UniProtKB/TrEMBL annotation:
Protein name as it appears in the record: DnaJ like chaperone protein
Bilayer-crossing regions: 7-29
Organism ancestry: Bacteria, Pseudomonadati, Bacteroidota, Flavobacteriia, Flavobacteriales
Organism from which the protein derives: Tenacibaculum skagerrakense
Stretches of the chain forming a coiled coil according to its record: none
Domain of life: Bacteria
């Protein structure tokens, strides 16, 4: 384990307390291997408890908070269909490696393997996230969760239901939810859903919707959760641009 809790405490704020903190505490115990002595285990737990006390009054989110929130909510979605699919686990591992590099990703995934063994109170976890994380960051969480669900090539009804429930607890409204969902479904009216407009929208309404959505999903709105998360934010932003270009071609304007 060594520096496990040192890494865990670096850059974390609100997630070291409350229901998420309790889950992480459980996960630390789950990742202890047989080569760790009882004293080393106790030292890790003592270090973790000190970090909880140090960070218990944190009121803003950080890159580390976003990382831990992803881990916890990803475990909810992956378990929702009653089967932990290796393709979904591989997606999480690959995504974390792309975001954080191999060393940090390995530590995060070790923690994830502990979290996924524990039952999660989705409502309580989302309430904690909602209290401290911006609306833009919460939208980004939903986008990531759909990516996980689609990793096995089909979004199961149980997975979609789990993500919708999470979105509700995070105070993501139906229009925002359907917009993000449409980015992962190849439907005829996906471009309209992504831009949050009806098929009957005029050209002026399409242009107005594009400007509004481009502003809402601009990567600059996610500066507080770290540079490492901006790549995925740019992919979401690109979906907005692609939807607009598709409607421009269809409507010839």
């Amino acid at each position: 384990m060594g520096n496990f809790t040192k890494w865990l405490g670096a850059g974390l704020g609100f997630t070291l307390g409350g229901p998420i903190g309790a889950l992480i505490g459980y996960a630390i115990g789950s990742v202890i291997d047989s080569g760790v002595t009882e004293k080393e285990y106790k030292d890790e737990q003592d270090t973790y408890q000190k970090k909880i006390k140090t960070n218990s009054k944190a009121k803003s989110s950080t890159s580390g908070d976003f990382e831990i929130s992803l881990l916890v909510l990803a475990s909810v979605v992956i378990k929702s269909d009653g089967d932990v699919d290796n393709r979904e686990l591989d997606f999480v591992r690959t995504h974390f490696t792309d975001l954080y590099g191999k060393e940090r990703a390995n530590r995060a995934f070790k923690l994830f393997n502990g979290v996924i063994k524990k039952d999660v109170s989705t409502r309580q976890v989302c309430m904690q996230i909602r209290e401290h994380m911006s609306h833009s960051s919460r939208l980004q969480l939903i986008h990531f969760l759909f990516g996980i669900a689609q990793a096995d090539e089909i979004v199961q009804a149980s997975e979609e239901e789990a993500i919708r429930k999470i979105a509700g607890y995070l105070y993501i409204n139906d229009r925002d939810y359907e917009s993000i969902k449409a980015m992962f479904y190849n439907e005829a009216d996906a471009a309209y859903k992504i831009l949050e407009i009806e098929k009957e929208a005029s050209v002026d309404e399409i242009k107005k919707a594009y400007r509004r959505m481009a502003k809402k999903y601009h990567p600059d709105r996610l500066q507080d959760i770290g540079e490492e998360h901006l790549k995925v934010a740019k992919e979401k932003f690109q979906s907005i641009q692609n939807a607009y270009e598709k409607l421009k071609e269809e409507r010839n304007f």
